[in-house]
Amino acid sequence: MSVLREMLENLFSRPFTILYPKEKVPIPVGFRGKIAIVDEKCIGCSRCARVCPAECITMIPDETEIEVKGKKIVRKKRPVVKFFRCIRCGLCEQYCPSEAIIMKCQLSESGTDKEVLVQ
Predict the structure, then answer these.
(1) Partners of 35 in the β-ladder
(2) pTM for the full model?
């Protein structure tokens, strides 16, 4: 008898889930979402790749002249992030000396196109 009562209660109550495409998911304060790399600030020190426990950040060769504190330097490499491997721990943002890595307060994209998802 209790199963029938519970079924009827659930039939006439509001759903606990939200209708996702119509309603947006509320993002809490301090949410570590999508990783953004500000290329102009990155000095190529590789700290982000060394501290990443998921090993989703790799450094690739990239000879680019950037300006750091009024000085022009040539950066030898830059980070590339594999978003599907990232566990959103925030260590890369914490250890970046030039504040080039930012954990945005937005949900990460999903998809199958590798070129779009690898930054």
Answers:
(1) 103
(2) 0.69
pLDDT per residue as tens digits for the range 47-70:
999 999 999 999 999 898 888 888
How far is Cα 32 from Cα 93, in angstroms, rounded to an integer? 10
- For residue 79, the Cα-to-chain-centroid distance in whole angstroms is 14
DSSP letter string, the chain: -HHHHHHHHHHTSPPSS--TTTSPPPPPTT----EEE-TTT-----HHHHH-TT--EEEEEEEEEEEETTEEEEEEEEEEEBTTT-----HHHHH-TT--EEE-SSPPP--S-HHHHB-
111: exposed, middle or buried (Cβ count in 10 Å: 0-12, 13-18, 19+):
exposed
Phi, psi torsion values for 62, nearest 5 degrees: -165, 100
Query: To which residue do tokens 């301090």 refer?
Result: 30
On the question of pLDDT at 118 being above 70, the answer is no
Domains of the chain plus CATH, in order, are: 29-117 (3.30.70.3270)
